Amino acid sequence: MSRMKGASVVEPRWVIGRALPTPSTGHARQHCSRPHMGSARRVLKGMAGHVWTVGPALISSLQSPVKPHSRVFRTVIEDPALGQVRLTGLFSELAGSETIVLVVHGLAGNAASPYCASAARAAIGAGFSCLRLSLRGADYSGEDILHGGITPDVWAALAAPAIARYKHVLLLGYSVGGHIALRAAIEGTDSRLRAAAAICPPLDLHQAAAAFDHPARRPYRLHIFQSLNRAYAATAARGRAHIPPEIVARARSCRERDYLTVVPRFGFASAEDYYERESVAHKLHDLKIPSLVVASHHDPLVPAPTLLSSLAGAPNALSVKWVEPGGHVYFPRRLDLGQSGPVGLEHQVIRWLAERSEIR
To answer: Which segments in the chain show pLDDT lower than 50?
Structure first.
């Protein structure tokens, strides 16, 4: 284990029946003496990141995995501009549990996203209840649009009567939802919040947007924008949008789309103002609640270099685990992060949360 100015950085193993061997000094010398081979390996590993990102999502769309038992969750939030905004989710309630895991999806997802279902299964398996929250408008209800720092939705969900009985809250967010989870951990508005985890989160929204707008990521942008445009059109149909949806649909970059949607809706001066004010990167030094970031070396949507400067000044409350095999929010089924109990990303993360918060 190495140290990065307070944040513990761990290189986890990929369990395949036995621990992977550590390369010998001779192997290291051989690698250095053949730079072209190292370059080829890096290219292949980079391609593996795309495979791990696209493959599991594609398989999930073609299969019907067993869904955790849940009921529809509903609550409202009082928004200063729109008044009451409804929030929905999927609530898996475990009798006798005093702990609830609140799961926050990524930018183009919602409570029904496959990775959220995986988190719910792991939470239930650990003996915890689970709320998979759909951020405002993510359920295509047309209630509103969201942005990358919209923590009021988290606090409104936790304040709902159905969640009031729980003594302990654990947060687990994916991608932009991970960014929101970390912001919530810093704010600490709910005293029941014990620990938080973020899977493949952007930390500096400016750097993340610049990387996401690179021409090489155009296929990902098209896919994510398709979902966002559908949600925005539903919002516009209810008269809750500032810019006509046909204009927003022509946006070709994240920055342009944020300028047309997030900026006028939430009163930011510009896209840069939005990124500056909402980025968790500038607030990590205030983090006190035990928190975990799981990041992939080969994440094609949130490249590792966009995280490094933010993590350089991270406090002791933040642990960082870099994973070699994997892509964006999807990893090998037998991933081992060094926690006791079952292997697999969600099982290991839930165990980490429980142990850091002293919940057994």
So the answer is: 1-37
